[in-house]
Amino acid sequence: MISAIGIAGVDHILVIDSFYDREGSYWADAYRVEGGGMAATALCTASRLGSPARLFSRIGDDINGQFIAEKLVSFNVDVSCLVTVPGAHSFVSIIHVNGKTGEKQFYSDKNQPVFRGHIDLDCSRLEGTKVLLVDGFWMEAALTGAQWAFEHSIPVVGDFKSRYDGLDELLHYVSYLIVPEFFAQEMTGQNSLSGMLKELSSLCPGVPVITRGSHGGVYQDGNDIRQYPAFPVETVDTTGAGDAFHGAFCHFLAAGNTLDRCLEMASAVGAMNCRALGGRTGLPTSGELSYFLKEHQPRRHIQS
User: Fold this and answer.
1) N or C: which end of the chain has fewer CB within 10 A?
2) Can you say whether the dihedral through the CA atoms of 113, 159, 237, 58 is positive or negative?
């Protein structure tokens, strides 16, 4: 089973001609509403590929909370560990997608009221977990769960895009730190990929991985810096690509694949998810992924 502790939300996606920085009234070319959130979408990915998946998260007792749970169930994700917080608003994002490039901008409530206040994490519900994913939104629970996983020799995969309170402590338990290039640069203050990886290695005992979108990514393998490939696709929307990458990585890691193979297949899944509007619409099944990989023969590289 793949377990995840983190964010689940609702995405309202608008496709527009370009990103605007001035006041005005503009038409959107398309609109879609669907379930979102880093941990939640990652588990939808893992489930679509064939892994049992269970989410530990918090939702409000509002219509958005009901929508979040229903969409997770539609992907066969176990929602028995979702905590409903009375009187709280569920997490919602407004996403502007550039119709020409597929690039996106997220707008969310930074106060995150649904994650306020103490709620215990029942670690007994983590029994049977093969890989634990944490994204930093429910930090108190992520720390508790990651400590439990560490004590039980279960790999912890970290998906972070911001300096969450408590992140430095959580990093001590992370086995695979997978972060986008912009955040790796922010975390380390380095400009070169080799400098970022070296500094990330000093911050986290696990394997550091830097994702670079259409440029693939790099990771530290002993003393070597290795690359994993990108897969060219006709991009419609990059929403959820990173989440899909993390979910696929967890799925293939739990199945016992090598690190380079996990990253290669996760990259393929992330690319496939960019071919449709929405963060979950393009998620492939295992059979669809196999066919896609047969059509693409990536090359691996090693840098000194």
Assistant:
1) C
2) negative
CATH, residue 232: 3.40.1190.20
Domain membership flag for residue 206: yes
Structure tokens at 241: 């690509």
Domain total of the chain:
1
Cα dihedral sign for 184, 189, 191, 195? negative
Cα gap 207→212, rounded to integer Å: 16
Task: Grade residue 6 by pLDDT with cuts at 50, 70 and 90.
Answer: very high
What count of residues does the chain have? 304
Quickly state the pLDDT bin for 298 (edges 50, 70, 90).
Answer: low
> 1: buried, middle or exposed (CB in 10 Å: 19+, 13-18, 0-12)?
middle
**Host H or E run for residue 294:** helix 286-295
| CA-based R_g, the chain, Å | 18
